[in-house]
Design goal:
alpha/beta; Enolase-like, domain 1; TIM Barrel; 2 domains; nine-stranded mixed β-sheet; four-stranded antiparallel β-sheet
């Protein structure tokens, strides 16, 4: 039997010069970081996953996780996950425990795939797609004069991406200026998505939407803070652009609060934060039941990107069949980030706006040990 021998956490980070920091309306950052979760089986198989956050926050939960998982079979994760969140209900669900458990969940699927010689997508439901469409996530706010919005957009124009997302949220007037520029640079055919990162209130979001709706916006991401469920419900009754949210939501319980009231049009779970494939599948089912689109958020390393690609390859296009009005898109961040571009021996690079679904066992990826050592943090 394939039992768990050990669980390890590896912190990785990339530090930029302060003058190259980039980010969103809330703040800029000069550091990209996340946590890799390794699971080793008694058969010597090693699975890899990714957890949102820092090594310090994840490490605080490692003793509890080790105690619950070591010695158990690699197939037992849903049972153990349920025991942990039920027995520790005072802890809550919106925390690094869920992110770390999610990274472990992905690592266990990777280990299961390697054990049985199957790609993860087949374990999740089937290889429904050979390649998955991605949109370019760029257009960051930055003080770097050489990397302003127009320069960022010009780097992705003509690269075959079906859509592009960029940051807004400074003010409704600024939003209109940035959207007008993006439409001019990227043309009329590309899908445009905008991201406020929860920096607005309902009134500001509505004013922003009124200004930018004429430019044809595919979705308007995180207009409000994730805690403002009532605000999302109110906004849904008046919004003139489809609303997306979910990158800061943990578990299917959080998503159900928005989906049950049709407060969002696009759900954006991040597998490295929401609880891994187990919670991702539950969220996908909720989206099917409420007929809401799903588009995973990805902003960590190549491991999280690989997980999202397998996840989307295994999902049906329900309620569509032959004719899909818009492709289901995975976020492909194009900001400066070697944790995405150089961590793997064979990077997951998009070609004509698509990433080929790896067909090797597990996630089908291999970590470059030299790059891992270079970016490892304690």
């Amino acid at each position: 039997m394939s039992r768990i021998r050990d669980i390890r956490l590896i912190g990785i980070a990339y530090d930029m010069p302060p003058d190259k920091a980039y980010g969103m309306a809330r703040r800029l950052t000069a550091r990209r970081e996340c946590v890799l979760v390794e699971v080793e089986t008694e058969d010597g198989v090693i699975g890899i996953g990714e957890a949102w956050g820092t090594l310090r926050t994840a490490a605080g939960w490692l003793p509890l996780i080790r105690e619950a998982f070591v010695g158990r079979e690699i197939y037992d994760h849903p049972l153990i996950f349920g025991d942990i969140i039920s027995g520790g209900y005072h802890i809550g669900l919106q925390n690094a425990l869920i992110a770390t458990l999610g990274g472990l969940d992905v690592a266990l699927y990777d280990a299961m795939g390697k054990t049985h010689g199957l790609p993860v997508c087949k374990l999740l439901g089937g290889r429904g797609k050979e390649h998955v469409p991605v949109y370019a996530s760029d257009g960051y706010l930055t003080k770097d004069p050489a990397n302003q919005l127009e320069a960022q957009l010009e780097r992705i124009a003509g690269k075959g991406f079906p859509g592009a997302k960029f940051k807004i949220g400074i003010s409704p007037k600024s939003d209109e200026q940035r959207v007008a520029l993006a439409r001019r640079v990227l043309g009329d055919e590309m899908l445009l998505m905008v991201d406020v990162n929860g920096n607005y209130t309902v009134d500001l979001a509505l004013e922003s939407m009124r200004r930018i709706a004429p430019y044809g916006i595919h979705f308007y991401e995180e207009p409000l803070p994730p805690q403002d469920v009532d605000g999302y419900r109110l906004l849904a009754t008046r919004a003139t652009i489809p609303v997306a949210a979910g990158e800061a939501l943990y578990t299917a319980f959080d998503f159900q609060r928005l989906l049950a009231g049709r407060a969002i049009d696009v759900a954006q779970p991040d597998l490295a934060l929401c609880g891994g494939f187990g919670q991702g599948k539950a969220i996908a089912l909720l989206c099917q039941l409420h007929h809401v689109h799903l588009s995973p958020h990805v902003w960590g390393s190549a491991v999280g990107l690989a997980a999202a690609v397998h996840f989307m390859a295994a999902l049906p296009d329900y309620p569509h069949t032959e004719h899909v009005p818009h492709p289901r898109l995975v976020e492909y961040d194009v900001g400066d980030n070697p944790l995405r571009d150089a961590l793997l021996t064979t990077p997951l690079a998009p070609v004509d706006g698509h990433i080929v679904v790896p067909d090797g066992p597990g996630l089908g990826i291999e970590i470059d040990p030299e790059m891992l050592a270079r970016h490892r943090v304690e």
